[in-house]
Amino acid sequence: MVKQLTTLKTNTRKIRQLGLALCVFFSSFGVANAADDVNIAVVDQFAAILNTDQAQSLTEKYKTELEAERGKLVALDNEMAELEGRLEKEKDVMSQSEVMKLSSEIKDKQLDRNVLIKKLRNRNQDAQQEIIGALGPKFEEVMKKIQEERHFDLILQKQAALWASEKYDITKEVTDKINSL
Hints:
Layout: H1 2-29, H2 31-37, E1 40-43, H3 45-50, H4 53-90, H5 96-150, E2 154-157, H6 171-180
Parallel strand pairs: 1-2
Helix pairs in contact: 1-2, 1-5, 4-5, 5-6
């Protein structure tokens, strides 16, 4: 799976470099003439993969798995709000040691909250990488089929283009074809 992600990232990097080289090349001959002779497309590979039915169902599965962690986060937020409210309300009548103890509890809750948020972010990133790794081969297969059917001279990663008309964007077509596999 990591190898597939690395391959996708390497391919993306190569596509961007090729796109830049071709842009420089075409600009030296005049963009209008070059555009007439070249069949170009752009695709957002991550959007194409993440919008598939399989990716959506896996995303829902991961969301369900993380509900308990999100519940803990909400509980921590509520506890912190309660402690902060108590500190604000009773600060004047508390002893210095009570204020310090309550402040320490709030800081501990904040640290726990930060750790939990980091854990949720990491799990979310891991889930996205798993999805991309699982669907990467299908993406590659669909891209080959589209190339064979439509005979593109150049397919760029959408992010590599400064601007591209919607007529060149094949992301939805790729998503639909992955869904049909």
